[in-house]
Amino acid sequence: MDNKQLEERLNLLKESYERLPEQMDVEGILNKIEEAPPMLEKKNKGTGWQRVTVWAVSIASIFVITILGASYTKKETNFGSEQVEESIVIEQFLATLKEEYPKEREKRRQLLDLTEEEFSKIGFIQNADSRYNFYTSPNNDLLGTLVNNGDRLQSRVNDILYSLYLPSQMIEDIEKNQITLTEEGTANFFNSYSMKIRELQNFFNNQHDVSPEQIKILESEWLYVDKDKLRYEIKENDRSYNFIHSLAPSASGYFKMLEKEPFTYAGELIYSLDESVAFMFELENCLFDSSDSYNDKSKMKAYYTEIFHAIVKGTKDQLIFGTDGTVKLEYRELWKEMVSETSNSPVNYILAPIVEEFEASNWVQSDSWEDLDYNDIDDALHLAINGDLGQFIENTPEGL
Questions:
Q1: What pTM value is reported for the model?
Q2: Domain presence at residue 305
Q3: Half-sphere exposure of 184 (CA within 13 A, CB side)
Q4: Domain span holding position 105
Q5: What Å distances lie between residue 392 and 103, 255, 307, 397, CA to CA?
């Protein structure tokens, strides 16, 4: 190999390197160098030219390996840096959570004046403990995945601590931050708030002894002792007024339900006829205006149907017909008033034909009343909520 041939080979090698992609096949490059045909054949071993060729190939190999090694080292360093950053974020998250959670949890336990065993039986405390144990479990690969996806782990600390809040503390948080919630935000708030209220009710209703101190604490949660049971009630004052007006309008119906439920027991109305009708219409308006994000919406529909059915069909203890075989006067007047005060309501499409048929028979007979069942009320309510109540008439027997 003369100087010109050696220079050409080195230039080719240089051009080849310049065209190398970021991800290079090291083994393939070295194989090509080794497989390259000899530029000059010499029978005598160990001549100067042969030694130069071997030297050139060796230098080229070292050159390529050095470049590739530098590139790989750079990438390995960047990857290591990302791992270090991820590790720091996770360590900070776990350190904060492990420090704050036990302290906040203990505050609530002492506030409710319960033993650890008793406190651990409350539903929302069990849920909070489960979340805490999940995130702090050893070798939780999910944390690394969350960090890589841009998740802010520190915000999850606040979420987990918030799950420990008592209902009154949830209200204080709204007051402190002067928050006005959207419809969706109101539904999410009520879902969590009402769950905690009911779990506190269930827990303390099953306690044999509730101390005066605990009763006082429970009253701050708007839970009051009534006939040996805790009853939820919102006392009208500045605080409750400001709180309710920080929520979407639909919330009033759900809080009314939380206060007054249940409305029937074993098919009988718990409240008077007039009160039951008022509750029914309040639930109806709420169902029309509220989003499906409320977990209690199905329960509200069921309450509405139960009240409606009891008012129109009567119950074992509250019969529709008098001893003379005609509809009692109080039901006649109540039904007429209900029909006159509503529009685009299941009342108009179910009760109006019933009243018309009863009047035509001197309040003795109505086929629509005979055929009415829970499913008819459910269907009418569903169509009314969706704004399709007109279809109900087309799918009911003639005269209804």
A1: 0.74
A2: no
A3: 0
A4: 1-165
A5: 57, 30, 20, 10
